[in-house]
Amino acid sequence: MATERLVIVGGDAAGMSAASQARRLKGPEELEIVAFERGHFSSFSACGIPYWVGGDVPERDRLIARTPEEHRERSIGLRMRTEVTEIDVAGSRVRSRDLESGEVAWTGYDKLVIATGARPVRPPLPGIDAPGVHGVQNLDDGQQLLDTLAGTEGRRAVVVGAGYIGVEMAEAMLKRGFEVTVLNRGEQPMITLDPDMGRLVHTAMDNMGITTVNEAEVTKVLTGEDGRVRAVATEDREYPADVVILGMGVRPETTLAEAAGLPLGAYGGLLTDLAMRVRGHDNIWSGGDCVEVLDLVSGRERHVPLGTHANKHGQIIGSNVGGGYGTFPGIVGTAVSKVCELEIARTGLREKDAAEVGLQYVTATIESTSRAGYYPDTAPMTVKILAERRTGRLLGTQIVGREGAGKRVDIAAVALTAGMTVEQMTALDLGYAPPFSPVWDPVLVAARKAVAAVRKAG
Amino acid sequence: MATERLVIVGGDAAGMSAASQARRLKGPEELEIVAFERGHFSSFSACGIPYWVGGDVPERDRLIARTPEEHRERSIGLRMRTEVTEIDVAGSRVRSRDLESGEVAWTGYDKLVIATGARPVRPPLPGIDAPGVHGVQNLDDGQQLLDTLAGTEGRRAVVVGAGYIGVEMAEAMLKRGFEVTVLNRGEQPMITLDPDMGRLVHTAMDNMGITTVNEAEVTKVLTGEDGRVRAVATEDREYPADVVILGMGVRPETTLAEAAGLPLGAYGGLLTDLAMRVRGHDNIWSGGDCVEVLDLVSGRERHVPLGTHANKHGQIIGSNVGGGYGTFPGIVGTAVSKVCELEIARTGLREKDAAEVGLQYVTATIESTSRAGYYPDTAPMTVKILAERRTGRLLGTQIVGREGAGKRVDIAAVALTAGMTVEQMTALDLGYAPPFSPVWDPVLVAARKAVAAVRKAG
Question: Is residue B51 less than 8 Å (CB to CB) from chain A?
């Protein structure tokens, strides 16, 4: 039997999961695997960077799931610091450049996996490349930030952006003893929540000592005489800063794919079929932060860069490439995060998402507690549910609370996947005992209120 | 309009939830509500008693959700310390006895709710009524136990039974500084788990300093010269005890219902329809610990005494009695508990349950962690999944772990309700961030392993 060659572009979660799964199914005599990674690290947890910077994770290497050597021991030909610069679809080959030696080479493939991930949004503002301004996209970024912190006596940090990365980095900098200001373009922090729920996050961050400035559009980064950052400017104010962290979101890194003429969606991500094969291409797969995924609730493609999806994609691609079978049916938009003790979770559609796709909806918001009211350390939590008008179908759930709040979103995530109505949810048999829940779980209380709202709306 | 009379037998969760909900829908001019409670307390949390005894809950009254006075303020005629001694179905009336005055009276009803709860198993062993032997069924029991503890210098506690109440009381007594021995009839503690998962609980309890003796059938309680308990005897040993706590499970309290000729199931619980109406009786409803409920996974009626079901039943009964509409579709058998730091959860069928109803199944057991492996305080957890052979339909899930483990069972509870296969579960979009979960949630890891087991079994 002839040996096939699988080429993988990108050596992080999706790419290397695909490699590992393909290798489980096919040995090196059947399938040669060559993977290109332009960075210094493979298979690392980008989601863990805020906790490394904040000191919860003591050292960088804890964030590395599998080193290049470990991949190579499993007969995966991982070439580090080697950037793919062109995909030649017609010729079934990729051109790569060794970033150390400068050597350029073409490598042919029978099967190709594009796992190029995402790139951080970094608008071309004056001063944005000044020393002291940091992204937190990869381990090199994290190390550079830590080096800056070690060399800085100043204690003022400005975080630009109030999404997941922004609030997680706000926590990290607070833990490191900085005065933290978060500059947020939106109406409230956590644009992935509705503004009423985002407001709860804002208030909680205030109480932690994190200053959040809403509707603050950064216009430039100001530098001192030493060339280092000294402040961040918006239209009407300057915010002094000894260090600036950019958490302005990410976009699919599809420069190569676009140049190769592969199909991209409205958010710039690659479009795939259910088997994660790039649409219209029998021998090219793609997964992770560079693809768009089907949102099962709205029926639209979205860009949802999350490690958990990337790992699933990789596993599915690896199965398909290795002669097995797997599909990725889509997402419901579940995400969970925290700022210090505050837990923030969401799944499904926000109000604006529902409106955008023509769904009429009702909302119900309740306050309850994570444990029985009489149990020690019981903590308040707010649950908001969106349900479709008339049908009562669950459309989305948002939770803001303390310990025990965040992962409750999984209840709603499964209910969304199953297409349950809020009426059906009220009958769910959820785990109850005083240390774990009030006798009516907060999600059930919200579902009951949503049932009433559906009935009332008619 | 003539005023109807609703009579409720039993003033705890199911009965008083029914009363409250009926009152919300109908005012006193339309519906008179008379409720009889033989005990000293209404609407209390029996589930909270172990935490009160253990000291987590500082005082008894925290466990009372609503006092008799509060019920009366809402025009619910609650008669405390008044026992219903007969239900005359043909005459639509109940006979009651005031336990203080001895007065006996008949009260007619248009609608009747039977919410008589459960009674603890208390085998007629020699010495079982000796001072120092305690049940923990209600607040009086709890107070008597606390009085005994206050008057005892001995530090040896024997807990008879290793179900939820048994292990929770073991924790409570450990917290109070006792040497705790748990005498367990079964092969392993937590008979609601499969033995392999129960073994994990056993080991963890050992490590906490709680001695569990399995396959220990208590034969008698031994008393000292003062008449107080001094030891508990099994066939082959004596276990010295300064205090003994009985946690041997409960049975439906259906003495009155049985005498009235109402239909009982295999476990002695009342049988109802989906609207919680006693089968064959248009004007009698029943809910809470005295009924059997439909297990949606096995299709059989079971007795599942849990406050969360009782509250749902009461709410549904109150809706139906008050002219609204509600049904209780059934349960999937979810339960969660803890012993000190150990969290124990289960939903669906155990291996023996599946076998009993003719289901062939595969199992998959995995070890994972509650958070990302690199995140502080990540804790190990074991997840076991049962899936039907061939179809791969989820049949049950059991979890033993530390913080963050227990409530993950809700994911499986919703998936069971939705009739998902383990293959479908592998695609669930669950909340991921390093403080909350590994990139593959432990439930997903177990589902993946179960998929492989289903495929292998053929």
Answer: yes
